[in-house]
Specification:
Distance between the termini: 43 Å
Strand content: under 5%
Helix content: 55-70%
Number of strands: 2
Largest sheet: 2 strands, antiparallel
Order of helices and strands: HHHHHEEHHHHHH
Strand order of the largest sheet: 1-2
Structural class: mainly alpha
Number of helices: 11
Amino acid sequence: MARWLEYESRDTFLHRGLHPFTKMMAVVSIMAVSGLWWDPRYLAVLVLPLLAFIYVSKIPVRWFRIVLLAVVTALYPVSVTALGQTNPGIYKVLDPVWATTPLLVTTLPVFGTIGLTPGGLMWLLAVEIRTVLMASYAFVFIYTTSMAQVTDTLLSLKVPNPIVFVIATVYRLIPDLSRVVENILSAQRLRGWKLMHWNPVKMIRRAVPLMNPLMRRVAIMVEQITLATQVRGFGAGKPTPTQGINLKSLDYAVLAVAAALFVGAVVGIIVGNMGLI
């Protein structure tokens, strides 16, 4: 079973049916569009293909616990920012009067008018949906695309070697760190160690048995990666991909849809403020 953020070889359409370049461009296009749109109703449309991709790829549902954690963690700072969306001039599509209708509004000497408005709630919902979209689409790509495939694709695109090396290292380092953390947690729990406590000071003190072996292990892993790059001659010559970018008809069709989505979103925003609030 694959660790969190680790590729797993499976016989699914997303694993075998599409070229890594196609998946990469499709994910980049969707992320770019989700960054351009601010209307949660438009962003919700991008959730539909995401659900289909999750089902087809058979990605472990437990991966998305971190997405839920990110949404909950970001809720407070995002909500604070949403309180400032009370200026009618920032709304391009919504009726400014309706969008700034005070639900719970007050005026402060320094910050001016802040509070809860329908427009602020839509802005808050859009940010949270975007967080889910970007993280989830990245998860699907990582789960269905191996490090070797990513490296070959980037090298074929003439991406500078240091950038390819950093991406490949991170691609491998995160699941390895996940294994290390789980092993340390299991070992400490066998000794009766617990992290959770109502007192945050005690929680910090209890984290010491976790952080000490983790830092030592990270230092060892960095040394191992450095030695591995030296053995493989990184920087001594120009690496070549083992496979080129050979696309099929289906790949071209998916790329065309991804390009049309991005171009349509950009043109729609320029021409008619499509996707904005």
